[in-house]
């Protein structure tokens, strides 16, 4: 039986084709790098973050965390979903939805989970804790890549750089600013510049 979870000091279970093996190893190695502590985001002051026994919303509740909780440590992540990670905080251990967690290493917290896309050329990205699933629609390619912890330049707390593990010339540069997809009236809260596999592309995230 394949374990659907990955402890961050173990090797990812390879469930895809051989061509994905290097990317899977990179993701696992990226998770072994020290990530900044996490904070809770998007939870109202009169609400709590639920922590569950399994990585899905219907799992048993093992406890809750107050919206001002910080210093949250990640111990594992699910292999089959980008939406849940296993955390430790205030003596509590369990699975939390990453939509309510952010990197707390700057004045403005960066959400862990982002949905990003761009047009002309068309591409999409599902970004989570240490992994990005990317679809290059313009050349019909899909890749999975691991990324290091986000870093911010001095004095610019609304910018974050994440480099691809062992390939620092490949990166994600995210900025908290109003972003337009150029095709609609919709505005997004983050812009992104991506350098991956000789592709330099730009887009928006939510």
Brief write-up:
This protein is mainly β. The protein contains one helix and 17 strands. Mean pLDDT is 85; it is low at 7-32.
Low-confidence parts, pLDDT < 50 over ≥5 residues? 7-32
Cα distance spanning the termini:
36 Å
Order of helices and strands: EHEEEEEEEEEEEEEEEE
* Strand-pairing-aware structural class: mainly beta
Can you tell me the overall shape?
globular
Strand order of the largest sheet: 13-12-11-10-17-16-15-14
Distinct helical segment count: 1
CA-atom Rg in angstroms: 17 Å
Task: Please give a structural write-up.
The chain is mainly beta and 206 residues long. It has a domain at 110-205. Helices cover 6% and strands 47% of the residues. The strands form 4 sheets. The protein has an 8-stranded antiparallel sheet. It has a 4-stranded antiparallel sheet with strand order 1-5-6-7, with no helix packed on it. A hairpin with a 6-residue loop joins strand 8 and strand 9 (110-111). The radius of gyration is 17 Å and the shape is globular. The chain starts with a strand and ends with a strand. 34% of the residues are buried. The model is unreliable at 7-32 (pLDDT under 50).
């Amino acid at each position: 039986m394949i374990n659907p979870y990955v402890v961050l000091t173990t090797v990812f279970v390879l469930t895809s084709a051989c061509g994905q093996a290097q990317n899977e190893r990179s993701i696992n190695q990226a998770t072994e790098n020290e990530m900044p502590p996490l904070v809770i985001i998007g939870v109202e002051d009169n609400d709590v973050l639920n922590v569950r026994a399994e990585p899905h919303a219907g799992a048993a509740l093992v406890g809750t965390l107050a919206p001002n909780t910080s210093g949250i440590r990640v111990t594992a992540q699910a292999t089959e979903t980008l939406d849940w990670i296993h955390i430790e905080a205030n003596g509590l251990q369990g699975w939390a939805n990453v939509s309510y967690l952010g990197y707390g290493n700057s004045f403005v917290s960066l959400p862990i989970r982002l949905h990003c896309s761009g047009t002309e050329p068309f591409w999409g990205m599902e970004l989570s804790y240490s992994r990005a699933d990317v679809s290059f629609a313009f050349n019909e390619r899909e890749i999975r890549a691991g990324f290091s912890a986000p870093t911010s330049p001095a004095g610019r707390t609304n910018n974050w750089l994440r480099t691809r593990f062992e390939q620092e010339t490949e990166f994600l540069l995210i900025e908290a600013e109003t972003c337009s997809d150029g095709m609609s009236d919709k505005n997004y809260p983050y812009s992104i510049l991506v350098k991956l596999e000789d592709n330099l592309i730009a887009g928006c995230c939510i």
